[in-house]
Amino acid sequence: MSVRLYLLLIKASIRSRMQYKFNFIFSTLMASCIQISEFLMVALVMMRFGNIKGWTLYEVCYLYGVMMISKAIYRTLASDVHHLEKYLVSGDLDALLTRPVPVLLALMTQNSRILFAEIGQGIILLIIAMRVLMANGQIGWPSIPLTALIICTGAIILFAIGLATAAAGFWLTRIESLQNMTEDASQTAARYPLTLYPKWLQGALLVLVPVGFVNYIPTLYLLRHEGGIGMLLGTVAVACAALWLAMRFWKLGLSRYQSTGS
What we know:
Layout: H1 2-17, H2 21-49, H3 57-77, H4 84-90, H5 93-97, H6 103-108, H7 116-135, H8 143-167, H9 169-172, H10 176-189, H11 199-208, H12 216-222, H13 230-256
Helix pairs in contact: 2-7, 3-7, 3-8, 8-10, 8-13
């Protein structure tokens, strides 16, 4: 029932945003330009200097594509979780509390939009990377369903991180700076092999903010054949644990929320 209701709310939200066709097309084109320019800068550097810490351009391309699609899925299916601060500051969260649906479900379906640019470009990057890696014999056809699994677990992990950060807003109210660290900066860092960073930062990206499990850890198994199947199973376990902890933290924060009317 909750899934059906969620899909209905998402459909209604997307339909309302699609009424502004020019804004939708313009924002999609701008997002495409930004994403393309960011990756091209990395690609040009790697084409000039070759491998980075043993990682080839196409392996980095794979990391980049997985992160891009996972993030786009999270932001598509749970758009305003990332924007909880504005609800807390303006008091608009009170309106969601009066709806006959769970607050988190109502929040996730607000202002939904499908991030076509990010998803499309991520798919293109993965196709390019995987075709070359398959031609080199580095991966085989089973890597396709495994990549789909990695993307799904990645989206869950990113959602869990975003939800836990948003829940901190019930105590902090202003969480933009925190989000810059736990979501924006960490996700940007995880587009590249974690071996590029010092040990303390690698630990932070695997334990404190586990974005390393979105793409880097499963990629070690899939592309570089390191660590065995346990790397992939561990990623699934981290996704489940992160989601459970984030949901618990969210419920705790919501129980402490003081509405503007109280």
